[in-house]
Amino acid sequence: MASAMGSLRRLLMAPSLRDVSFAGRGFPVTETAATRQLETIPQAVVTGFEWGIESTSLWETERRLSLVDLEMQGFAYEGAVMASVIRDSMPGRGGRTRALLQGSGRRHIFLNYIGIGFAMAKLPRPLWGKVMPDDLDGEEFYPPMSWLAIDGYGFDRAYFDRARWVDAQRPDTPYAWEGHPHYFQRAVDQGIGRALWFIHGAGVAQVSAAVRAFAPERAPDLWAGVGLAATFAGCSTAAELASLRAESGELRGHVAQGSVFAAKARHFSGVVPEHTRAALHALAGITVEAAAALADDTAPAPGSARDVPAYEIWRRTVREQLLAPTD
After folding, report:
1. What does the mean pLDDT of the chain come to?
2. What is the CB-side half-sphere exposure of residue 249 using CA atoms within 13 A?
3. How many helices (H) and strands (E) does the chain have?
């Protein structure tokens, strides 16, 4: 059960479900069955955050998360991890995030990294150096994927302040995540690309126009984020997915790479909805099983990169494999 302090934390920190809805955010979305389904995702994140921020025990948080529909469970974990990071940052606290990621949250590790990024958007930068548990070094944690935290940070910035980060296209101040400040904006843009999928209610024409409104050098990472969101979150028809691939033009490899990483995350969680299979086939032309194998086979060895993050080498290699001519 929640303590009085937990209830106060929830009251002060948790946005309302209305606040994260498309209408509540003022997004240019015409309500349909698909958009109603899509906006349940940020609402699931908020629900997970509420449980994580107010529960007196981690067991209670995990038990509540276990009751969420399996297809949506990872999104609730995003919110719970966000809450854990914030609680760990308080004086005298610590260890909650590590316990959650190493426990029941292990299967959702990719989305948990995004949840860490959501917390970063709420915390001052001097605290960022301690948000990532320092002993998640097993292969099952996919260490290079910690850049998804910056992706999550970028998504949060765009979702909650569209005027600044999307309309005005403001670049962020570099931060030396994993010692690579020059890559920070690129990872932020991957998150902004994912946010565009939600901001425009999975409307392919509107999402594509939004990507093209940015400076051309930012488009590849934005398209990768769009591909990831279209595959993981879904809410598109076969015709719309075909249109998305066509709209991305010569940057379709970036869309396909994002789609592969989304499929890998779904496959790793053990729950692959049909919309993920359909989107992956349309955007990358392969099966979920093939995508998971591709991601694993191309994962860089620890310490293999210096000038650029191993994460970017991984993304590049996946893209090259997808675009390689077949015999």
Report:
1. 92
2. 7
3. 19, 0
pLDDT band at 305 (very low <50, low <70, confident <90, very high): low
Give the Å distances, CA to CA, from 243 to 205, 206, 238, 274: 8, 12, 9, 19
In whole angstroms, what is the distance from residue 94 CA to residue 19 CA? 29
Residue type, position 15, single letter: P
Residue 81 has pLDDT above 90, yes or no: yes
- The CA–CA distances, whole Å, from 180 to 92, 145, 174, 195 equal 30, 14, 9, 23
Number of Cα atoms under 13 Å in the Cβ half of residue 8:
3
151 and 114 in contact (C-beta within 8 Å)? yes
Calpha distance 251→244 (Å, rounded)? 11
pLDDT tens per residue across span 196-221:
999 999 999 999 999 999 999 999 99
CA 95 from centroid of its chain's CA atoms:
23
Closest CA to 263 of 252, 274, 249: 274
Position of tokens 């970017």? 312
CA 80, 82, 83, 85 torsion-angle sign = positive
Helices 288-298 and 274-284 pack at an angle, to 10 degrees, of 70
Show the tokens assigned to 224. Answer: 């990768």
d(CA 48, CA 123): 18
Give residues with Cβ within 8 angstroms of 280, minimum separation 6. 231, 259, 260, 262, 263, 286, 287, 288, 291
The pLDDT of 162-166, averaged and rounded, is 97
Q: What is the pLDDT of residue 54?
A: 86
Query: Which has more confidence, 306 or 150?
Result: 150
- Rounded CA gap, 315 and 312, in Å? 5
Residue 40, both tokens: 């349940």
Q: Tell me: the pLDDT tens digits for 105-158?
A: 999 999 999 999 999 999 999 999 999 987 776 667 788 899 999 999 999 999
